[in-house]
Amino acid sequence: MNPEYERTERGENRKKSVRTRKRTGNLVAIIFLSVICLVALSFCVFLMLRIEVMKDDEVQMKTSVDRLNNIESAGYITNADALQRIQDERAQAEQEATDTLLEYIRSSYRNGNSSVWMLRNLFGTFANELVVGSGGSFYFFPIDDTLKKAFVSPMDMQPDSDGRMRYVGADPSVAGTLGVDVSRFQGKINWEKVAADGVKFTFIRVGARGSTEGKIIEDNQFEANIEGALENGLDVGVYFYTQAINEAEAIEEAEYVIEALKPYTITLPVVFDFEPADTDDARTNDLSIEQNTANVLAFCSRVSEAGYTPMLYGGLKSFLMMLDTKQIEPLKKWFAFYDDTMYYPYEYSYWQYTAQGRVNGIEGDVDLDICIENLAR
Known about the structure:
The chain has helices at residues 3-70, 79-110, 115-120, 191-196, 222-231, 247-260, 289-305, 316-321; strands spanning 129-134, 137-142, 157-159, 165-167, 177-182, 201-209, 216-218, 235-241, 270-273, 310-314, 332-336, 350-357, 366-371. A hairpin with a 5-residue loop joins strand 3 and strand 4 (165-167). The strands form three sheets. An eight-stranded mixed barrel has the order 5-6-8-9-10-11-12-13. It has a two-stranded antiparallel ribbon with strand order 1-2. Helices cover 42% and strands 19% of the residues. The protein starts with a helix and ends in a 6-residue tail after the last strand. It is of the alpha/beta class.
């Protein structure tokens, strides 16, 4: 090969290599500068956005400061001012609550309501408790959710203009019928007029035990009353006013009723009339809850054995303070409570709602009752 040619070829190759390196270096420089420009541009955009955010923050801070400065045109509220305002508002609220309560008490007394009535209706304060007044004191009984509740609402019963309670609920199986309970104190009764006045049932007293001597006393109007009621198509039940001090006496009372009923066919329960004696020297005054409950169960068991349906009569004090509520739960109940709204939450079958009722055929006041038995049962 020609040596001159080889030298020329090597020179050309070196020139090409130099030119290639220059172009590569220029390209790298251009790319680096482009990246620097993009970073700078991004940073500028970030700064612009940050400036806008800071402007918004400044406007909000200024607005907040202006709002604080404008409160009552007195500058910022100090902690002391805030505490004073809270105390003033609390004092005003307490005064308003006191005024409302005092007006409620005045209004209640003007309307002849008792203290226990006021407690029961005190803005739902004792909605989960039953309030019972006895001997000048008040007793509070939490409502037991394990016991069966009444299957009609208190609002399902409303008095008419004549004072008679009506069932106004939507359940057609609820009887809602009018009844009376009577004894010798109502004198001679015209049962034909009673039936014509819309009375559908009656409970008739068979007798009573004396509260001091303890002797069983016949009700001298029992025969006339039961015969007159049956002859005029009323459903009839009977009751006995107890003053038994033990199970033996309670069974004796049941036997007395069973014997008196032999000539008659009744369709309603035989009732154990259990209520506090109205004398300070009554023989039953010091009986325990356990003994009272045992007496009730003994009477009802004997009545059931004789083929009748037993039932217990009483009021709040009887059922809550004198008896074991859980043990008497299975019994049918006839509840005495004189008001337009029922106050007893547990299951019952009859409600004696007034002792001052008026019925054609009966002279003077008479107890009125409503049957709320669910006939579908």
